[in-house]
Design brief:
55% of the residues lie in helices and 11% in strands. The longest helix has 24 residues. The protein is globular, with a radius of gyration of 17 Å.
Length: 224
Amino acid sequence: MAILTVSRESGSEGSVIGKRVSKTLGYHFMDKDRIGDVMSRVGLAEFDREYDSALNFWDQFDVRRMGRREEMVNMLNRVLLALAQHGNMVIVGRCGFVVLQDYADVLNVRFQAPFPLRVERMMGYHNIKDPFEAEDFVRKRDRIRADFVESFYGEHWITPRYFDLIIDTGKIPVEMAADWLCGALPSLDKRETPGAQTTADIRVDEPVRAAVCEVLGCDEEHNV
């Protein structure tokens, strides 16, 4: 069944929209924390700590450490593929749009918004009083995400070719964006795509599959 990947600028409401879509369609919702839960069950509990330090990676890690980072990214790829193979999934962040770009039943969506609006939103979310502090906060979060994609996948974070849809939430309300996606995802399941690769074709390692099912609390195979 169709998969939605969400890439978002800080303060663009991408996570909020992803949650609305998952609730409406009855999809599983996988964000940073839940993907981290799967990673920890397959032996890489430190992934989130490494991810958050990606901005300073080249200064902080020697060649031996770099190999460990590559191992973690390889495991992340396997986890994302396992999530997609499970089906009925909204995947927020963690480069899902790169790993799953070639599958016909995956909708890759990027959310963005004007910088002043994103700063205003983040001030409210995080109770930041100083607008200059909020600007630095937003820039840092965006930079960490961009550096991770560029360091490990060799692509720019905002490369348009990866995305089927780019939504500016400064213009499109959250409710409308969620409605669009709730209409689009079921249509992917109905499309005839002879010869196209779909997530049902993914072969998953049993330990990773088991970890995904455990975190989701779901053994049902939606991709049948």
